[in-house]
What does this fold into?
Amino acid sequence: MEARLALKALDYPIPKAANRWTYMLGGLTAAFIVLLIATGLYLSQFYNPSPIGAYDSVLYIITRAPLGDWIRSLHYWSAGTVTVTITMHLVYVFWRLAGVAAETAVVMLIYLDESFHHRSLEGRMRSAADVADAVREGALERLRPVLMTVTAITAGLAPILWSTGTGADVMKRIASPMVGGMITATVLTLVVIPAIYLLWRSWQVAHRPRALLRDAAG
It folds into this structure.
């Protein structure tokens, strides 16, 4: 077959990562949404929403409609499964955002440590003001990369937030926590972590032995 059609590698190996359950959440959710819509359209042909005919129409679906009871049960369980899979998808998104926040925080700490130790080796770390200068220098070096990353991710997710097409409700529930998480991670990286680092290093410098301070001044 490959020789006749000049096609190569029709049997691509499935990546190991594709076997993880997290890669199936989106397709599983979409499949149950389609099933929910299909069964709902079928049941709507027999259902009468009026206060008088509602009970009779449900009774007709259960007893007389072709496969009515089975399709009604399938519709009911599809609705519950969609809720569960969407919730699991949101939990997975939050977990991935936590990984991004931890990664950016670690990189920020590396820059802050590098600036602090560089000034310490030069003998310019004698007071809390010197620590503040080191923290400001290290944080400013990471300011532009962090803002570029957040801007790119937010701009990529923004069209989903204002979309109105098919499946927009599901995608909005996934994109909204990601946008909010990126903004929160930015505040954590650029504000909270440098502030905590400043307090920690200022306490270290204030409680440093006086002999070390004289050596740094000399």
Q: What stands out?
A: The CA atoms of residues 14 and 20 lie 11 Å apart. Residues 68-121 form the longest helix (54 residues). DSSP finds seven helices and no strands in the chain. Helices lie at 2-5, 25-44, 54-63, 68-121, 128-161, 168-206, 210-217.
